[in-house]
Every structure is written in structure tokens, then in C-alpha cells.
Automatic annotation (TrEMBL):
<dbReference type="GO" id="GO:0046872">
    <property type="term" value="F:metal ion binding"/>
</dbReference>
<dbReference type="InterPro" id="IPR008567">
    <property type="entry name" value="BKACE"/>
</dbReference>
<dbReference type="Pfam" id="PF05853">
    <property type="entry name" value="BKACE"/>
</dbReference>
<keyword id="KW-0862">Zinc</keyword>
<dbReference type="InterPro" id="IPR013785">
    <property type="entry name" value="Aldolase_TIM"/>
</dbReference>
<dbReference type="GO" id="GO:0043720">
    <property type="term" value="F:3-keto-5-aminohexanoate cleavage activity"/>
</dbReference>
<keyword id="KW-0479">Metal-binding</keyword>
<keyword id="KW-0808">Transferase</keyword>
<protein>
    <submittedName>
        <fullName>Uncharacterized protein (DUF849 family)</fullName>
    </submittedName>
</protein>
């Protein structure tokens, strides 16, 4: 068994500032938490940007450039920039930060889907900012769009033009088959970094049978040509990561996916979540991959080839 790659999704776009005072918002906060997560054992840092004035999601390249160089100077971790952004962004907006940064790795959602954040709007009596509640409620009638054409465009503009490879985010079994379609067409090449995602409202549910079924289908479609990773939202983050590791997979944690470090206990940093899963992995006699080992496993271009 290879060593386990820990990815840390540092801030995301699903949670809003009201939900946790520990959610990193400003470039300085994102850099600080990303660096600490890497020091705790994360080989991959999955990064979104936020407007430093009010915390709303942004993919403004100028905001990215306020924290990416600091992260590179302070850690050898692999920077993985989102191409998802949020449901309200256009494709050009979603690619702007990644095209400026030319990173080693980018996320790539493998299909259009309902992405329902709206149930979270009812959990809070008041919000810190006027944009938060409408942003959440709007997802009841929005679809996250990634058509076959969109996926081809992302592969062309980032993969072929920048040498960037992808974290293929698969929220459903159908997304695995979509990835197989692009592999058959030789538009993507092994080793594939397949992130199977559970618990998003509109995607596959948090169920052990779903986890194992996703692994079986990925094995059937990709054989030895992929590296499997698992992310589960909310309270199942650590449990599903543990099951993935036991079954030969890699894991993703971070405040993008869960705000907690235990029952009703807010995580005070991304590093805290990384430390929890790293401790579990070591107790299972599993070794944690360094950034350079993860680069080898994923066949990345190297940190000296990025644009920041």
C-alpha cells in the first residue's frame, strides 16, 4: 500500500462567515491556515478565495496572488485551485484564478448537478453579512453546471495549456463514468486523482455501501490507473476518511467540508482536522505521504513550474 495523501480544503465556498469564527476569510488568514495544515501533514492544499471585505466567494486572480506566493514560500505542499467556485459563477470566472496561477493541480467537477446549500439558511436567526442568506437560499433553484463541453474546455485551458493535472471530483457514480469517457478519448491521462465525494445535498449520500460501491466501480473502470481519495461533508468527514484509508485510499479534510472537530465542537483551524486524521492514520500503522511523494504518485509537474 502506498502512503496516504492528506488533502486539506481550507475555506471553500459553501460555508459562510456566520457559521464559524474560525473560517479563514482574508488572504492572510487563508495563508496562515494553509501553512499550518501543511505543517500538520497535508500534502495537498485545496484552495478557494474569498472577498476579504465580507467573505463572499471570489475567484479574482488578484486575491489569489495575495496568498499563493506566501504559501509557496513557506511550504512544499501541492497547491490545488478550484475550478468550481460557486453555482452563480460563469465558466470564465471560475477559471480566472487558476489560469493566472498555473498550479500543479486543479479540482474538476465531473458533471452538472444540484448543489443544495439552502437548508443551512434556516439554521441561523441572523447573519453577519447581507449576502449570506440569499446566497444559500438561491441554491434551491440553481444548478452547478459542468457539461461535457465545459469539462473539455477546462481540460484544454488548464491541462493542455498549463500542464496542470486534476483532482476529479465525483459526487455521484455517473461522474465516474463521465471520467471514464474522457479517459477513453485520451483527453485525460493516468494516474487519475479521483476524489469521491459524499453528503452534498444533490450528490451521493453518506452511506458505507455508497463508499464501497464507488470504490468497486472506480476499480472496474480505471484498474490500476487511478489514485482514490474520499471526502465526506459534515460529521462524517473523519469517519469516511478513516474507512477510505483502511481500504487503500487517500483522504480529504478541511473547513470547506466540515466546520467541526467533534460533536458540537467547532474546529479552531484546518490544522486541527489534519492533526485528527493524521493521528488516526498513524494509529492504523499507515504512513502519510510527503508533498514530494504525493507529486510522484500523481505525476505532477513540480512546484517550480507554477505561476506564483
Amino acid at each position: 500500500m502506498d502512503k496516504v495523501i492528506i488533502s486539506c480544503a481550507v475555506t471553500g465556498s459553501a460555508h459562510t462567515p456566520t457559521m464559524s469564527p474560525y473560517l479563514p476569510i482574508t488572504p492572510a488568514q487563508i495563508a496562515e491556515q494553509a501553512i499550518a495544515a501543511a505543517e500538520a501533514g497535508a500534502a495537498v492544499l485545496h484552495l478557494h478565495a474569498r472577498d476579504p471585505k465580507d467573505g463572499r466567494p471570489t475567484l479574482d486572480p488578484d486575491v489569489y496572488m495575495q496568498f499563493l506566493p506566501r504559501i509557496k514560500q513557506s511550504t512544499k505542499a501541492i497547491v490545488n485551485i478550484t475550478t468550481g467556485g460557486s453555482t452563480s459563477m460563469t465558466l470564465d470566472e471560475r477559471l480566472a484564478g487558476a489560469e493566472r496561477a498555473s498550479p500543479e493541480l486543479c479540482s474538476l467537477n465531473m458533471g452538472s448537478m444540484n448543489f443544495g446549500l439552502y437548508p443551512m439558511a434556516a439554521r441561523y436567526d441572523r447573519f453577519n453579512h447581507d449576502w449570506e442568506k440569499p446566497f444559500l437560499e438561491a441554491t434551491k433553484d440553481l444548478i452547478f453546471r459542468n457539461t461535457f463541453g465545459d469539462i473539455e474546455t477546462i481540460i484544454e485551458r488548464l491541462g493542455k495549456s498549463h500542464g496542470t493535472r486534476f483532482e476529479f471530483e465525483c459526487y455521484d457514480i455517473s461522474h465516474l463514468y463521465t471520467l471514464a469517457h474522457f479517459l477513453d478519448r485520451k483527453l485525460v491521462t493516468p494516474p487519475l486523482f479521483v476524489q469521491t465525494i459524499f453528503g452534498i445535498h444533490g450528490g451521493q449520500g453518506i452511506d458505507t455501501e455508497n463508499l464501497l460501491h464507488a470504490r468497486r466501480i472506480a476499480d472496474k473502470l480505471f484498474g490500476d490507473d487511478y489514485r482514490w481519495s474520499v471526502m465526506a461533508s459534515g460529521r462524517s468527514q473523519i469517519a469516511f476518511g478513516t474507512m477510505a484509508a483502511i481500504n487503500g485510499g487517500n483522504v480529504r479534510v478541511g473547513l470547506e467540508d466540515s466546520l467541526y472537530a467533534g460533536p458540537r465542537k467547532l474546529a479552531q483551524s484546518n490544522a486541527e482536522q489534519v492533526q485528527i486524521i493524521a493521528s488516526i492514520l498513524r494509529s492504523l500503522s499507515l504512513e502519510i505521504a510527503t508533498p514530494d511523494e504525493a507529486r510522484t504518485y500523481l505525476a505532477l509537474k513540480g512546484g517550480d513550474q507554477v505561476g506564483f
